[in-house]
């Protein structure tokens, strides 16, 4: 089977981007009234929503309560109309359970859980349209929702994918078409300022010599996304702060 | 101070407002919340709509599949509605199997579709006894702040009106199906039902378009579905009894709202350019 050329002779990918360009990211915080924190994020054609409830008392079995930490509970759900073929089980299938677990693991690395012992923080993510990089968009949206909810974190958790085209050109932020074309996919969830990696997942195979440049490509993508998310948070804080009069202070330098 | 009073004695807090003829969010008893509609934003679905009534947000996505029609109804396709109330929409829903409210809502939407006849199931049939369209209508509530069923019905009707089905030809002898995705036909929507929810507070005061708080504090809730000047259904699950004149008042309110909503949906679809 002839593989599609992920990167053309002139250096353009299937959707017209260059190898190191991210897809367009649009995000909005505080979109819903019921959850404590919420965010909507679009990364190219992938649209996800995140809602955070908490910290609140543990629901269900009290035996799960941790005496010195908060419990982080994540649920990843895809709308049935989010993929090309109708998805019969929005949650509860193996892939969704795996994604929920990966989300929880990534966020446990950054949320200051020791501040809220014996309580629970819920993170719910809903994918409305899936076009590749679903997990990354979910992590980014959940970070914004956690900031909106005011839950203390050591750093933003930002995720990005990377792939390898034609055997040696690293590509950042792969779309669905590029993911399914058979090339290797590396997903990294990192804390960008300290350069630490919270979660890394890889599929397919490529030579070990290429690993450092693909990882560096993904980490650079994370740093770029971090800047975009940080600007969104500052914009949102300015708007909501100025609407409330900044608590009567004359001027605040952000 | 007001927030303390509200948490300690919410019913009395409401009564004090209603005694002055106004609700805590500033509306009077018959005023509806502003409605905004957005259509065709989800490209992976054949038809989609997002509706916001005040803070309540419902998104509807329609996916079309091909299947064999039921043996007892060989000339009809099917419409399968499903309402999902995920835990992200409200703190009272927990992760797990669909709650009672979700199942009752799905049933309500299914009944509204059949009783209003908004889509003629014969239009969905391609080859009698062999092939028909199945439209899966999935409604997901993203934020529950009251009047859930109103938002669901509006989202469903708006999404149905944006559905474009590809042309399918079926050869009966060879049993082959040819789908041409470029040639698309719009789905014929004959009727546009509109639902309106009312809450009965303290057994006597009628509140139109209640918020989530108002619904939980009220002694009864009622939903009226109206379509094209005709009454489609009235859903009043128990709660305080109503007099005939109060019921008539609600029906009139629902009729006026239906006109407004239909105009809004038409305007939204026109701006889409379809």
TrEMBL record, chain A:
Pfam families: RNase_PH, RNase_PH_C. It is found in: Cytoplasm; Nucleus, Nucleolus. Non-catalytic component of the RNA exosome complex which has 3'->5' exoribonuclease activity and participates in a multitude of cellular RNA processing and degradation events. GO terms for molecular function: RNA binding. This is Putative exosome complex component RRP41. InterPro entries: ExoRNase_PH_dom1, ExoRNase_PH_dom2, ExoRNase_PH_dom2_sf, PNPase/RNase_PH_dom_sf, Ribosomal_Su5_D2-typ_SF, RNase_PH. The gene is EXOSC4. It comes from Cryptotermes secundus. One of its GO terms (biological process) is poly(A)-dependent snoRNA 3'-end processing. Residues 21-152, 156-221 form the Exoribonuclease phosphorolytic domain. Gene3D superfamilies: GHMP Kinase, N-terminal domain. One of its GO terms (cellular component) is nuclear exosome (RNase complex). Component of the RNA exosome complex. Belongs to the RNase PH family. Keywords: Cytoplasm, Exosome.
UniProtKB/TrEMBL annotation, chain B:
GO terms for cellular component: cytoplasmic exosome (RNase complex); nuclear exosome (RNase complex); nucleolus. Pfam families: RNase_PH, RNase_PH_C. Its main location: cytoplasm. It is found in: Cytoplasm; Nucleus, Nucleolus. One of its GO terms (biological process) is nuclear mRNA surveillance. The keyword RNA-binding applies. SUPFAM superfamilies: Ribonuclease PH domain 2-like, Ribosomal protein S5 domain 2-like. Belongs to the RNase PH family. This is Ribosomal RNA-processing protein 43. It comes from Cryptotermes secundus. The gene is Exosc8.
């Amino acid at each position: 089977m002839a593989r599609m050329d992920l990167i053309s002779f002139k250096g353009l990918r299937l959707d017209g981007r260059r190898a190191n360009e991210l897809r367009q990211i649009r995000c909005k915080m505080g979109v819903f009234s019921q959850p404590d924190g919420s965010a909507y994020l679009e990364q190219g054609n992938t649209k996800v929503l995140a809602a955070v409830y908490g910290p609140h008392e543990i629901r269900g079995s009290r035996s799960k309560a941790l005496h010195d930490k908060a419990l982080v509970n994540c649920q990843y759900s895809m709308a049935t109309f989010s993929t090309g073929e109708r998805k019969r089980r929005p949650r509860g299938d193996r892939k969704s359970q795996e994604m929920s677990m990966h989300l929880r693991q990534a966020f446990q690395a950054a949320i200051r859980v020791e501040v809220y012992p014996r309580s629970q923080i819920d993170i719910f993510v809903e994918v409305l349209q899936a076009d590749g990089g679903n997990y990354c968009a979910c992590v980014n949206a959940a970070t914004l929702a956690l900031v909106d909810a005011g839950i203390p974190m050591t750093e933003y958790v930002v995720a990005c994918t990377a792939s390898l085209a034609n055997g040696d050109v690293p590509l950042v932020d792969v779309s669905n078409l590029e993911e399914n074309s058979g090339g290797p996919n590396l997903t990294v969830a990192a804390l960008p300022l300290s350069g630490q990696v919270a979660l890394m997942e890889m599929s397919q195979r490529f030579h070990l010599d290429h690993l450092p440049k693909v990882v560096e490509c993904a980490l650079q993508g994370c740093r770029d996304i971090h800047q975009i998310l940080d600007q969104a948070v500052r914009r949102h804080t300015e708007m909501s702060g100025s609407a409330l009069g900044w608590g009567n202070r004359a001027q605040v330098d952000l | 101070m007001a927030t303390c009073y509200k948490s300690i004695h919410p019913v009395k807090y409401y009564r004090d407002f209603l005694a002055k003829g106004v609700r805590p969010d500033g509306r009077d008893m018959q005023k509806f919340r502003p409605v905004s509609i957005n259509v065709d934003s989800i490209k992976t679905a054949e038809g989609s709509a997002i509706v916001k009534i005040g803070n309540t947000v419902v998104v509807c996505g329609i996916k079309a599949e091909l299947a064999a029609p039921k043996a007892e109804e060989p000339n009809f396709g099917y419409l399968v509605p499903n309402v999902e109330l995920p835990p992200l929409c409200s703190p009272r829903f927990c992760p797990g199997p669909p709650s009672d409210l979700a199942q009752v809502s799905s049933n309500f939407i299914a009944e509204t579709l059949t009783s209003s006849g908004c889509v003629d199931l014969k239009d969905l049939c391609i080859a009698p006894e062999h092939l028909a369209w199945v439209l899966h209508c999935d409604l997901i509530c993203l934020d529950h702040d009251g009047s859930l069923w109103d938002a669901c019905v509006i989202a469903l009707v708006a999404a149905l009106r944006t559905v474009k089905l590809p042309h399918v030809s079926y050869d009966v002898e060879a049993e082959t199906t040819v789908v041409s995705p470029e040639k698309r036909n719009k789905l014929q929507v004959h009727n546009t039902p509109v639902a309106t929810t009312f809450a009965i507070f303290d057994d006597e005061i009628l509140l139109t378009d209640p918020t989530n708080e108002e619904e939980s504090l009220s002694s009864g809730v009622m939903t009226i579905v109206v379509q094209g000047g005709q009454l489609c259904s009235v859903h009043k699950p128990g709660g305080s009894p109503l007099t005939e004149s109060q019921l008539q008042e609600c029906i009139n309110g629902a009729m006026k709202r239906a006109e407004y909503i239909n105009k809004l949906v038409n305007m939204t679809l026109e701006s889409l350019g379809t």
